[in-house]
Design goal:
TIM Barrel, alpha/beta, binds iron/sulfur cluster, 24 strands
């Protein structure tokens, strides 16, 4: 069994000699299965969980909240978790006890433990993570690259937005626009037609959103300029509408469609992708007709009641999302689900069945597993799912077995419309 980890008053991470690690799935604490744990991957970071102490299992199989440092009697300690880089899906949340009942920040905490001199995390690899490894970002040369692009395109407000996103929020898809490689983000919409519980660009709770929403709607010319520059010069190029600093991009279909047409007149290279809630079907149709290659649809649940409770759609329903997917597939657009994964909910039998049914009926090409960043207790107050929890690893195996033609991944890959 793995030992529990804690952070002492100096912020050092240490293993506790008297307690075994526990993980959390939904409302339940449990000892992790071997296949639910892996050595902490490069690029992951260890963090203390604000206002929380770890819960552990003692040698008499008693579950306890661990308050004090065994090495410094009376010194309070904090719970510890890992934040995973893209490419890894969390299998268990940390088992911890809140001391202040404050809502946790919008971070994807994963459970950790210690054994034979190594730190392990409750995760499984679901994609290659080289391109998203933090070592590739925030490099010394980034500010100079940003300045060079801002000098080349002084009038283009998107580059100024992305410069702020790169330097202030540390956004990787913003930085890729300046590194001229891989997936680059192009934000373009201030408003949204949903109010997701875990929205990272506009807070709907006591926690502050991770980033500020873009304050302007760029013109088709500004969008096309950034898109052409990236697709013509970047390796493995993808441009993605729908970033963490904006609302719902399809609401800006008029400008985006005009830009997509202009871009495709200029270059056939790379992939034009949209990250969307796909609720505004008319907008999605315009973008598909304009030349979109791929569409990633964010979904917390395929069960209508849980979909509504989490996304709180304004003026659309899950059936509109399905209509958008159907139209996109009919046009040969590659469709992925951006499944907001939460151990003890997503892997419940009822949710797993709804997911399998949804994929079968809607010709989905890929499922991207996204660790949902939200306070577990706040989320579970709004949603519920029946049946046993299968375990995230078992859910992945079930999907692979039942739907071998559907790709399982963690992020968007280069594709071309019509080829799927
Ligand atoms: S669809 Fe995106 S921008 Fe809109 S509320 Fe949800 S997370 Fe926020």
């Amino acid at each position: 069994m793995l030992l529990s980890l804690y952070a002492n008053h100096r912020g050092e991470v240490l293993e506790h000699p008297d307690f075994y690690m526990l993980g959390r799935s939904g409302y339940h604490w449990m000892v992790p299965e071997k296949h639910e744990m892996m050595p902490l991957p490069k690029g992951a970071s260890l963090v203390s969980i604000p206002g929380n102490i770890p819960a552990g299992l003692d040698h008499n199989d008693q579950v306890t909240g661990i308050e004090y440092d065994p090495l410094s009697p009376g010194q309070p300690i904090s719970a510890v978790a890992a934040l995973l880089p893209q490419g890894f899906t969390r299998t268990l949340l940390p088992a911890c006890v809140s001391k202040d009942n404050a809502e946790l920040p919008l971070l994807g905490y994963a459970a950790v433990g210690f054994k034979n001199g190594k730190i392990y995390v409750a995760a499984v690899q679901t994609d290659d993570h080289k391109k998203w490894h933090p070592v590739n970002y925030h490099t010394e040369g980034l500010p100079a690259r940003i300045n060079k692009m801002l000098k080349r395109f002084p009038e283009n407000r998107i580059y100024r937005q992305l410069a702020n996103c790169s330097l202030c929020y540390g956004c990787f898809t913003a930085q890729n626009i300046f590194y001229q490689r891989w997936e680059g983000g192009i934000p373009s919409m201030t408003k949204c037609n949903a109010e997701c519980l875990g929205c990272i660009s506009e807070s709907h709770s006591e926690v502050v959103s991770a980033q500020e929403r873009i304050s302007f709607i760029p013109s088709a010319e500004e969008i096309a300029q950034v898109g052409m520059e990236h697709l013509k010069n970047a390796r493995d190029a993808i441009i993605s509408f729908g970033q963490g600093c904006e609302g719902e991009p399809s609401l800006n279909a008029k400008n985006l469609s005009a830009a997509v047409k202009d871009i495709r007149c200029e270059t056939g290279q790379g992939t034009i992708n949209i990250n969307t809630n796909a609720g505004y079907t008319e907008g999605i149709k315009q973008l598909c007709d304009a030349g979109l290659d791929s569409m990633r649809v964010t979904l917390f649940s395929c069960n209508e009641a849980n979909y509504i409770s989490y996304h709180r759609p304004q003026g659309y329903e899950l059936s509109d999302v399905i209509d958008s997917i159907e139209y996109a597939r009919d046009q040969g657009v590659y469709v992925s689900l951006n499944l907001l994964a939460f151990p003890g909910f997503t892997d419940r039998e009822e949710e797993a069945c709804a997911l399998l049914d949804f994929i079968r009926k809607n010709r989905v090409n890929m499922i991207q597993f996204r660790n949902l960043n939200i306070d577990p207790d706040r989320l579970l107050r709004h949603v519920s799912a029946g049946g046993e929890a299968l375990g995230m690893v078992n859910l992945l195996a079930l999907l692979q077995e039942e739907m071998p033609e559907v790709n399982l991944a963690s992020y968007s890959h280069t594709v071309k419309r019509g080829i799927s």
